[in-house]
Amino acid sequence: MKPLFGLDTVALAARMIEMGEPAWRGPQLAEAIYRQRLTELREITTLPKAMRPKLTAEGWEVGRPRIAKVFCSVDGTERYLVQCQDGVTVETVWMPEGDGGEIGDGSDLDATDKDRQGGIAKSWDRATICVSSQVGCAVNCQFCLTAKLGLQRNLTAGEIAGQVVATLDRHSVVVDRDRVNLVFMGMGEPFLNYDNFMGAVALLVREVELSPQRMTVSTSGIVPGIERFAQEPQELRPKLAISLNAPNDLIRQEIMPINRKWNIETVMETVRGVKLRSRERITFEYVLLGGVTDQPEHAVEVARLVRRSGLPAKVNLIAWNPGPEIAYAMPHGEAVERFRETLVNAGIPAYLRRPRGRDIFAACGQLKRTVEGGSE
Ligand code: SF4
């Protein structure tokens, strides 16, 4: 069956015309699948009764990816195995109250508590959804469990956006009321699946009506992707995070082989080509590996690197999350705090991302379709 989910209003209207139906059925379908979040043709009561079986007979279904399995952490985080039409599963993570990664980039500023204004009791005031862009990943960062899968396939725009809509649906999120941030930091390198990634962003902005200013995409430093990203119109462009993870090229190429292709300076130079909104910052993600990237001299180097870049920036520190088959050590708590202080004292805003859902393998770098952990 062919999925309607993934087609925007214009494409849906074109399909309707091909079927001999009026073009305005397109917007009607978009309303049903993206805003009412209906998943079955028979539920779309705005369509004439006879038209629903006709769509099925022509090989169409809504075809939104579905949450096939849920792992619940003691900290409220939920990890989902989201199943695509061909049976492939990817991971999506729901983090009520976020993980601190959004602090300092403007997303946390409009703290008017719309949830309470709406008078609806919820167990969360804001939330972050971590979205996957590929099945597995080819980038091979040495500290990341997803890398162990290798790249299995790219996700389509509908499969990427579908993770978000399925999660919004599960938590009955009201888009213009609730504060939900998206981070494209799950499985995969979004900029190695650029067209589908930006296609998903366009669906999420234009059809689901989420703000791109509440979305952050993280890249390991794929320079051609950053160059294309710099050309995107502001009304569609998410914020940008660079997965830096090391104070210099020598260490970075050890833990992120992609650095041999595009080194830190090349990445910085390309990022300078992105025209930022007022008050927007570039986020540098930095995974602290015990004894490898968490030393005091590394913090001094990172501060120098960020200052020299000339970019309005902040640094998000992530204490490495252990995973099987990966021979790194967690950093000590004092090392993490000292690292953060060094950056802050050098005038670089630096925040510690709270590890979320470690017990269910939902934390950063742990996504590998692990089927154990947590309660379902
Ligand atoms: S950290 Fe990201 S880019 Fe690197 S291997 Fe893991 S999923 Fe891929």
The succession of helices and strands, N to C, reads EHHHEEEEHEEEHEHEHEHHEHEHE
Q: pLDDT below 50 for ≥5 consecutive residues: which ranges?
A: 109-121
Number of strands: 14
Say which molecules are bound, naming each kind only once. iron/sulfur cluster
Strand content: 15-25%
Quaternary structure classification? single chain
Biggest sheet: strand arrangement: 3-4-5-6-9-10-11-12-13-14
First-to-last CA distance: 30 Å
Main sheet attributes: strand count, strand direction, barrel closure: 10 strands, mixed
Contiguous helical run count: 11
Look at the helices and sheets and give the structural class. Answer: alpha/beta
Determine the mean pLDDT: 91
Shape, principal axes of CA atoms: elongated
Radius of gyration: 21 Å
